[in-house]
């Protein structure tokens, strides 16, 4: 177990961590994409609901 943790620590030192500005930029991209997908899903849901109501009369 100790050897495993030492290996993990060694590998973690090799990781290329993002800078703060990269982190913020990529986080904003994720938030925008999620918002667009949420809006798209909402519009599709409205369309399906309207279609079901129209054809169920």
UniProtKB/TrEMBL annotation:
Keywords: Cell membrane, Membrane, Protein transport, Translocation, Transmembrane, Transmembrane helix, Transport. It comes from the Bacteria. The chain crosses the membrane at residues 28-52. GO terms for biological process: intracellular protein transmembrane transport; protein secretion; protein targeting; protein transport by the Sec complex. It is found in: Cell membrane; Membrane. GO terms for molecular function: protein transmembrane transporter activity. GO terms for cellular component: plasma membrane. It is a single-pass membrane protein. InterPro entries: SecE_bac, SecE_sf, Translocase_SecE/Sec61-g. The keyword Magnesium does not apply. Gene3D superfamilies: Preprotein translocase secy subunit (1.20.5.1030). Essential subunit of the Sec protein translocation channel SecYEG. Clamps together the 2 halves of SecY. May contact the channel plug during translocation. Belongs to the SecE/SEC61-gamma family. HAMAP family: SecE. Component of the Sec protein translocase complex. Heterotrimer consisting of SecY, SecE and SecG subunits. The heterotrimers can form oligomers, although 1 heterotrimer is thought to be able to translocate proteins. Interacts with the ribosome. Interacts with SecDF, and other proteins may be involved. Interacts with SecA. This is Protein translocase subunit SecE. It comes from Gemella haemolysans ATCC 10379. The lineage of its organism: Bacteria, Bacillati, Bacillota, Bacilli, Bacillales.
């Amino acid at each position: 177990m100790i050897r495993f943790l030492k290996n993990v620590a060694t590998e973690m030192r090799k990781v290329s961590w993002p800078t703060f500005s990269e982190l913020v930029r990529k986080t904003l991209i994720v938030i925008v994409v999620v918002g667009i997908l949420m809006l798209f899903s909402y519009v599709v849901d409205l369309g399906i609901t309207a279609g079901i109501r129209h054809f169920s009369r």
